[in-house]
From TrEMBL:
Belongs to the thymidylate kinase family. The keyword ATP-binding applies. It comes from Prauserella cavernicola. Residues 7-186 form the Thymidylate kinase-like domain. Pfam families: Thymidylate_kin. Gene3D superfamilies: P-loop containing nucleotide triphosphate hydrolases (3.40.50.300). The gene is tmk. This is Thymidylate kinase. One of its GO terms (molecular function) is dTMP kinase activity. GO terms for cellular component: cytosol. Keywords: ATP-binding, Kinase, Nucleotide biosynthesis, Nucleotide-binding, Transferase. HAMAP family: Thymidylate_kinase (MF_00165). Phosphorylation of dTMP to form dTDP in both de novo and salvage pathways of dTTP synthesis.
Length: 216
């Protein structure tokens, strides 16, 4: 059975870049790797509803913390069988966002912390009720909210398909979310967390060894 490793961080933190670097480092170390990014836009109807709501569609759906949280969770529920199969056939499964994203963003929207009711609701919904695989490790790619915002803005200007949504455009939300992520990491929520500085060049080789040590 492979190891389930989740990369978390703010919008614009560089999670996709880190996923690519870790995948290469793990491959170079002889490990087989599968990757998946959430939300699965263009693949999952629930993810597409999320994207549409974040761009103003579906009335007041985007304003509903629990409604949006449920859609994110349903996207992962539909992907659960594929994740389990990947864990069966690969040494490492790397996920760009997972359950902790839902917990962090919904808590931040409610101006609450990692010990809040909505975080526990997310855990019970996604892990207990939907039976999603529990991560073996998390990587928090920590960057200052203003750095992440600048990267997200640059990305949006370069790619029309990645224009900023309501969450990405809310600087206050991003700052609060960064705080919740720090709290989740401090308490090793669901599994051990590795915190790396996303403002500098990440040593992907060293991180790969920490996440998938030889002999595991």
């Amino acid at each position: 059975m492979g190891r389930l490793v989740v990369i978390e961080g703010l919008d614009g933190a560089g999670k996709r870049t880190l996923t690519d670097a870790l995948t290469k480092a793990l491959h170079d170390a002889g490990a087989s790797v599968a990757t998946l990014a959430f939300p699965r836009y263009g693949v999952s109807v629930h993810a597409d509803l999320v994207r549409e709501a974040l761009h103003g569609a579906h009335g007041d759906l985007g304003e509903s913390v629990y409604g949006m949280g449920l859609l994110y969770a349903l996207d992962r529920r539909d992907a659960a069988a594929g994740i389990r199969e990947d864990l069966r056939t690969h040494d490492v499964v790397l996920l760009d966002r997972y359950v902790a994203s839902n917990a962090a963003y919904q808590a931040a929207r409610l101006h609450q912390g990692a010990d809040s009711e909505v975080v526990e609701w997310v855990r019970q919904l996604e892990l207990d009720r939907f039976g999603l695989p529990v991560p073996d490790a998390h990587v928090l790619l920590r960057v200052a909210p203003e750095v992440a915002a600048a990267r997200a803005e640059s990305r949006a200007r370069a790619d029309d398909d990645r224009r900023k949504d309501a969450f990405e455009s809310d600087d206050g939300l991003q700052a609060r979310c960064a705080g919740v992520y720090d709290q989740l990491a401090e308490t090793n929520w669901l599994s051990p967390w590795h915190v790396v500085d996303g403002a500098d060049r990440v040593d992907a080789v060293a991180l790969a060894l920490a996440l998938n040590p030889p002999g595991d």
